[in-house]
Amino acid sequence: MRTFEISTSFWEPITLSLQVSIAATAIAFVVGLLVAWRMSAASFYGKTLVETVFLLPLVLPPSVVGFILLVVLGKNSWIGQAADRLFNISFVFQPLGAIVAAAVVSFPLIYQTLKSGFLEVDKHLKDAARSQGAGEWQVLIYIVLPLASRSLQAAFILGFARALGEFGATMMIAGNIPGRTQTIPTAIYFAVDAGNLQLAWALTGCTILLSFGLLLISSRLRND
């Protein structure tokens, strides 16, 4: 009986964390790619201020990010009410809330990595393509993305690793419901709180292995 409880408690947060991280990273990656592409070529008054806002989740305490998300997406907000009325969905204490939280905190890493990759692409190649009649989308798809492919891969991996380790913002908006919103970090916290060090060590070891592997792959992609 004890083995079954440990097994269930071990696999459920891992499975949910992987699902949440994949969904969150995909969202943050697509948004980050479009924003980084525009910002890498843009020049306007206040650009530094805008980019500072983009990077805020990287330095703000996760609990602050979670609180802001709770206010913006909660049932008393117009976004939360509209989502409930039009689509019958809720963010609070739901897996969707965990996905949004993970996407927000992973976005700055993805954005910065993608922007750096785009800036490394030779400007003359882009200008040459434009001179031949290529539109901006064609330049992005056929010139920039292939040449910045390693940065794209590194951005996705780093974003996934960050989403996998998200704790504070997830706790604020999604809570800790086993089998529903309990991710690896929250499961570790409550396992320690309950004195279940065996489960805490098992989840910690799994997280370290996953994170180490992701960082190793990312480093090789950027250095090769």
UniProtKB/TrEMBL annotation:
Function: Part of the binding-protein-dependent transport system for molybdenum; probably responsible for the translocation of the substrate across the membrane.
Source organism: Paenibacillus phoenicis
Domain ABC transmembrane type-1: 14-218
A Pfam family the protein falls into: BPD_transp_1
Membrane topology note: Multi-pass membrane protein
TM stretches of this protein: 16-37, 49-74, 86-111, 139-161, 199-217
Main location: membrane
Protein name: Molybdenum transport system permease
Coiled-coil region(s): none
Record-stated family: Belongs to the binding-protein-dependent transport system permease family. CysTW subfamily.
Subcellular location: Cell membrane
Swiss-Prot/TrEMBL keywords: Cell membrane, Membrane, Molybdenum, Transmembrane, Transmembrane helix, Transport
